[in-house]
Amino acid sequence: MSKSKTIFYCSNCGAQSPKWIGKCPSCETWNSYQEEIRIESQNESPLRSTWKSNHSDTKTKHAIRLDQIEIGQLKRTDTTDPELNRVLGGGLVNGSVTLLAGQPGIGKSTLLLQIAMSLKTGISLYVSGEESEEQISMRANRLKKTSQRCFLLPETRLDYILAEATVLKPELLIIDSIQTLSSPLLESAPGTVSQIRDCTNELIRFAKETKTSVFLIGHITKEGDIAGPKLLEHMVDTVLHFEGDRHYSYRILRTLKNRFGSTDELSIYEMTSNGLTAISNPSEILLSQHEERLSGSAIAASVEGLRPILLETQALVGAAVYGTPQRVTTGFDTRRLSMLLAVLEKRCGFHIGQQDVFLNLVGGIKITDPALDLAVVAAVISSLEDNALHRQICFCGEVGLSGEIRAVSRIDLRIQEAERMGFRAICISKYNTKNYDEKNSKIKVVQLTTVNELYEKVFSK
Ligand code: TYD
Ligand code: MG
User: Fold this and answer.
1) What's the CATH class of domain 76-280?
2) Is-above-0.85 flag for pTM?
3) What fold is seen in the domain 285-459?
4) Tens of pLDDT along 40-57?
5) Alpha-carbon gap, residue 130 to 110, rounded angstroms
6) What is the Å distance from ligand 1's center to 107 Cα?
7) Residue boundaries of the structural domains of the chain
8) Nearest to 331 by CA among 243, 428, 218
9) Domains 76-280 and 285-459 share a fold
10) pLDDT class for 229, splitting at 50, 70, 90?
11) Which atom of ligand 1 is nearest to the CA of 275?
């Protein structure tokens, strides 16, 4: 017996209500409620019967004392991609559900197809609700790879997918994408809150009971949120973000949530004409590709997660062409730039108020490390004064509102990376030297307290 019921869901946070409301009381978004029809079956869900194992639901579990629980080793599968293994915390945990989110065209399908084809043990099942077998096989040809362990299934109905997975018993199940799946129990269209939630729930149960590792691909909205409810992120074990500028070939894979490892990991890939290649030494590619000294360029020693990355910041400062001076940035927060310019104007007496300022982080990579401030300030002064910096000096430090240079985290990692890349000097905050033993390094560490001091020590000839 089944009956249908109309429910309204918030498409942002997944909250529900029996009637339409304009503003979600839970996440305060306006106009996010959508109507959905739900058929409630009083018998066991037909979905579950397609794959359910012999576990009986009536088995009761008893509570166990904490100190008596034996911790078994988490079983992890090697994805054969060392960078992906690292981001996952040392390989893919069996029975875990991982969400890979990213904008369209960034390379989500390519990355997971590469993984599906390179498994050394077991079978992988790649389910696509977006592309046909031919399209996926064409992509595989482009990657110049093939595999006898990889199976493709173009399907969007979850009951068929789970039935097939029960027969194939894959070690890795990839769903491209969660927004295309539909459950036969719900009348609402694929991609709606209840479809996404119910399909994910069923996939999570499937993963835990059969010890299959599941990868879900999730689309991202223009604002950068995972399309569909936020609650998808709460449900899965691991959330990975694949990001980058589509006009550049570099992509960053970040961990946003990881129940089995650190969220500080990150890896960088390059999209080539035959697939994604992991870049194990990002500083080498992000440093500039010119030899001569140019004004307006400064190297920042930044750290993303646990990874030190040296990259070039470029500034161009010139008299404003239009009435209102422009501040245009790529990869850097525009408001942060305005703040740094105000500090230069007020605390150091540079007249930038009437100048256009353009700022670029080379490589199209977006980094939000406060330690970039010092390199940005150095690049702006260098362009304003048309005074090129020495190529073998790099910078890290946060600039405060009174023009003081503040200490930043993980200073030893930054200094080591600068030394490894052959820099002769690094400018850091004076307050950072407490945690660092200078005797061990060959690089010259320049200690600064204010932006004025940066100008005196670095720019005056
Ligand atoms: P795709 O994996 O389809 O992105 P997503 O699944 O995230 O939407 O890849 C998208 C882009 O990558 C596409 O524009 C073509 C490009 N590409 C390459 O440059 N080289 C390759 O080897 C492949 C397979 C794709
Ligand atoms: Mg895709």
Assistant:
1) alpha beta
2) no
3) Ribosomal Protein S5; domain 2 (3.30.230)
4) 655 555 566 666 655 555
5) 13
6) 5
7) 2-42, 76-280, 285-459
8) 243
9) no
10) low
11) 22
